[in-house]
Amino acid sequence: MSEETGLDDIHGFFQFVGGSDSEGDDGLFVAARDRKQKFDVDQINYTPRIDEDAWFDRSNLDVASWISKHGGLDEILFTVQRLYFKKEYMRAADICRQTINAYTKCADGRQPRIANIREIIDIGACASMQSDDLVSTEYFYDWYLQCGGMNPGYNSFQAKVLTRLGRLEEALQQHILYLEQRQQDAQVWENIGLVLKSLAQQNAELANAQQVFLQLAMASFCRAFLIIFQSKSWKQIDVVIKRRRLQIQRLWLNAIDTAHLLFITVDTSDNAAESESVWLQLQKDCAVDQLQLSSLPSNCSDSLRKSVKWITLQLSTTNISSDYTIDTHDAKGVAEL
């Protein structure tokens, strides 16, 4: 019986060995169908195509021709992803726009619902926002709406784009639609706080309305901190600890800025950002259960009033303590308010 080599990997008719020249005992006296051709792994010199320079980039071709090639949409998606991460935003957005136009012609006017097209639209919008091209951002946003969607990520992306376009009331609605599905998202609560701060700046001439928006913004930052502070899923590895610290520090800077606008004194000593007592004091200073929503401006839209009422209802239960729970039984959707 031949001696087995534990390092050998056998795949079908081939046996890859670690540089050995021995032929073993499975030569002439083994049936042809059972013989295995041996290859020395040290002699294999293979470079994946993905590592070759610009193999994926066919942007010199007409995009319609590129799409028609086998795997064309996959190559376009990979190309714009690479361009985006290389910070070539304008070029990435241009290829995305050409792809959408060419694809819709090929699809005889049908709506772009396949996954690759949705991702290309997504990247086009992000690239346009990075290059401060709001016209292109709105173009990609309109196409994104045509793709449709029901998951929270769809609402989150809309909120991001709408905020960049300055359509704050609509952005707030999308954040709420997201939170109706996933309430425990610190990033979204922070984003809501930032939108409310922007609304406060837009209503700076109306002191009472500005006060409402700023207090809700501060309470939103408190909610975001609460979610991070009580999360049990943070792993004790360096990269995760660093991410948590950066997220809290960003929240803290936003909270300090809002506190100054509210003329609230904040403890800015070392480690204050992660101090439960400091955040408790901030929460106490801007208790949302005492807000007068009648202070909103008379020209405030019904949708904004509903959004503010929904946020106030959610934040009125904010309590930075170990026994914190969200009462979902009494929570209402924004459409019910």
Automatic annotation (TrEMBL):
Q: Which InterPro entries does the record cross-reference, listed alphabetically?
A: TPR-like_helical_dom_sf
Q: What is this protein called?
A: Uncharacterized protein
The scientific name of the source species is Coemansia brasiliensis
